[in-house]
Amino acid sequence: MRLSRVLTVALISLVAGILLSFPNLLHAAAITDYRPVSIPCRDARGALQLAIRSCLCDGIPHYLLVNPATLATTLEPVTATGPAPADAAQKLAASLLAALLQRTAAPPVSLQNHGITHATRPGAGKILTVDLCPSRRPMETGMFRALTDLARASGKPTPVAIAITGAWLASHPEELGWLKEQERRGLLAITWVNHSLTHRYDPAVPLAQNFLLMPGTDQQQEVLANEVKMLEQGLVPSPFFRFPGLVGDEKLVALLRRLSLIPLGADAWLAKGEIPYPGSIILVHGNGNEPPGISRLMPLITGTHPVSLIPLAEALTGPHQRPVELPAKPASLPAEPTPAPPLVQKNP
Ligand SMILES: [Zn+2]
């Protein structure tokens, strides 16, 4: 009897230990019936939201909501939302989300680095983006620890956008758990960016047939299945998407538009020697595959005068374009021509 009690206590301790080691297991939810939608609605507080996905979360109908004014995303039960107000269409058309979707879907589309590459809001702050492409190496924990040190010094969470792949997520559960813990403790304010499910790459192939442009790639599956992986781990995808290798084309950009996603580039890929300016979107790899970028970042985020980092969405609030129409049809329908005129990006 006593022995069985000891064994029971030992077993409970073991299970608790495993769960504490992998905190993301505690939040795992089954996401099924995942579909792109475009449904204006109201959240429980009465704020206008755009549902961009519907799904079952542990069997219960949910929406992935984007606040069109702030770009904040939440996963909410459908029962927690209400019908959109009468002026929803006008408000959506005039929103920050609509402006960014239109701006980034407009031609011309460049093969590399298409999309948002710089803040639109004037100011000295910079945006840090960290890519977690597939990797067998450990995460750049020292860099992330420096970001949490910044939070301790400033008294507020350090903003960082993390572009994550399903392949990295599946192979680094402990490091993912650590990142989520820093978020929970208020040390990191993470914008979770979809960076595709598998991030296929062949160094021997030209860019125009590489990454998501590789023949035989199910592009929509690469986008949506990664969102499912993220949600199953408790990460709520933002309305941003970073192309693997920053490589895309018109068809891919049109797909993102139909999925209500904003392509996210960068104008300061540190490992390539690009210098960050005020408003720059900095790119480094946090997956251990590009140490020179981390070496160049560390002096910027440590020492007595670290750079000012601002959240991605905040950097994009500012004067924007005239009202535009949001995509009204689900992404499974054929692409429609984009009528938007070209809009000039504010690069340094
Ligand atoms: Zn990547």
Throw out a few tags for this protein:
about 30% helix, 12 strands, about 350 residues, alpha/beta
Short synopsis of the structure:
The chain is α/β, with parallel strands linked by helices. Helix content is 30%, strand content 19%.
Protein architecture, described:
With 348 residues, this protein is an alpha/beta fold. The chain folds into 2 domains: 31-93, no CATH class; 108-315, Glycoside hydrolase/deacetylase (TIM Barrel, Alpha-Beta Barrel). 30% of the residues lie in helices and 19% in strands. It has 10 helices and 12 strands. The chain has helices spanning 2-21, 88-93, 96-105, 141-154, 166-171, 173-184, 219-232, 250-258, 291-301, 312-315, and strands spanning 31-42, 48-57, 60-66, 73-77, 82-83, 127-132, 158-164, 188-194, 240-241, 262-263, 268-269, 281-285. The strands form 3 sheets. A 5-stranded antiparallel β-sheet has the order 4-3-2-1-5. Strands 8-7-6-12-11 form a 5-stranded parallel β-sheet. A two-stranded parallel ribbon has the order 9-10. It starts with a helix and ends in a 33-residue tail after the last helix. The relative contact order is 0.19. Mean pLDDT is 88; it is low at 15-26 and 320-348. Zinc ion binds at residues 131, 133, 195, 199, 244.
